[in-house]
Specification:
The protein is an all-alpha fold. It has one domain (3-216). The protein is 71% helix and 0% strand. The chain has 11 helices and no strands. The chain has helices spanning 3-31, 46-58, 62-78, 82-94, 96-103, 112-135, 137-141, 158-166, 171-186, 191-202, 208-216. It is globular.
C-alpha cells in the first residue's frame, strides 16, 4: 500500500475519532438540557442523536472539530450548556416576546457584524437545502421545514435551527465554519447533500438515489 494511502487512512481514522468525541461531548450537554414540561424522550435516545450529529461533523475539517470541541469544554468550565443555549436562541422565532423578555438577557450577546456574517452563511445553506429538497423530494419530506416563516411551537425550521446553532459557536469556530461553507461553495458542493449522503452511508442504505427510491415506496 502506498504511503499516501496509509496517511489518508490514518487521517480519516483520526478525524472519525475526533468527530465521535465531539458528538459524545454534545450528548452530555444535551442530556443536561432542562426541557420545559419535563425530560424529552430524545434526551435518552443516544443512537438517534449519534446518527444525526456524526454525519454533520464528518463534513467538517479537523481544525473546525477541534475548535468546537474547545468551545464545549470551555462552556463546561464556565457552567454553560451550548445545547441549552442553542434551543434558547431558536425561541427568538418561535416565542419572540418571551425570548426578548426572559431569554435574550441571559445569553451571550452577538454583535451586528457577527449576526450579519451568520445570515450570509444561513442564506447559502438554506439555498443548498432547498436544492436538495427539489432533487430528493421523498428524503426532503422527512426533514425539517426550511424557512423561519414556517416555524411553529410544534416545529422548528432548518433556518431557525441553524441560526440557533451558529449563535453558540465561539469566534474561531464560526470563522472556521465560514471558511468551510465558502470552500464547499467554491467547489460547487452542497453541505446538505454531503451530510445526508453520509447519513445514508452510515445507516447502510446505499446511495442517495437508492435511499430516495426506498423512501418513496
Amino acid at each position: 500500500m502506498a504511503a499516501g494511502a496509509v496517511m489518508d487512512r490514518n487521517a480519516l481514522a483520526g478525524k472519525l475519532d475526533l468527530a465521535e468525541a465531539v458528538v459524545r461531548h454534545e450528548f452530555t450537554q444535551f442530556d443536561a438540557v432542562d426541557s420545559e414540561g419535563g425530560r424529552a424522550a430524545c434526551q435518552d435516545d443516544w443512537p438517534t442523536f449519534h446518527g444525526q450529529r456524526l454525519p454533520q461533523f464528518l463534513t467538517w475539517t479537523v481544525p473546525l472539530l477541534e475548535s468546537y470541541g474547545s468551545d464545549l469544554a470551555a462552556a463546561d468550565s464556565a457552567g454553560r450548556n451550548l445545547l441549552t443555549e442553542k434551543y434558547a436562541r431558536m425561541m427568538a422565532s418561535t416565542e419572540p416576546q418571551r425570548y426578548a423578555r426572559e431569554i435574550a438577557p441571559r445569553l451571550p450577546a452577538l454583535g451586528a457584524e457577527r449576526v450579519a456574517a451568520q445570515e450570509d452563511v444561513i442564506a447559502t445553506q438554506v439555498a443548498w437545502a432547498r436544492d436538495f429538497h427539489a432533487r430528493f423530494p421523498s428524503l426532503g419530506a422527512g426533514m425539517r421545514v426550511l424557512r423561519t416563516e414556517q416555524d411553529s411551537l410544534a416545529e422548528t425550521s432548518f433556518e431557525t435551527y441553524l441560526r440557533g446553532e451558529l449563535g453558540t459557536y465561539g469566534p474561531r469556530t464560526f470563522a472556521l465554519y465560514q471558511e468551510l461553507v465558502a470552500e464547499v461553495g467554491r467547489r460547487g458542493g452542497n453541505l446538505t447533500e454531503q451530510t445526508v449522503q453520509l447519513t445514508v452511508a452510515l445507516a447502510g442504505m446505499g446511495s442517495l438515489d437508492e435511499a430516495e427510491a426506498a423512501q418513496a415506496r
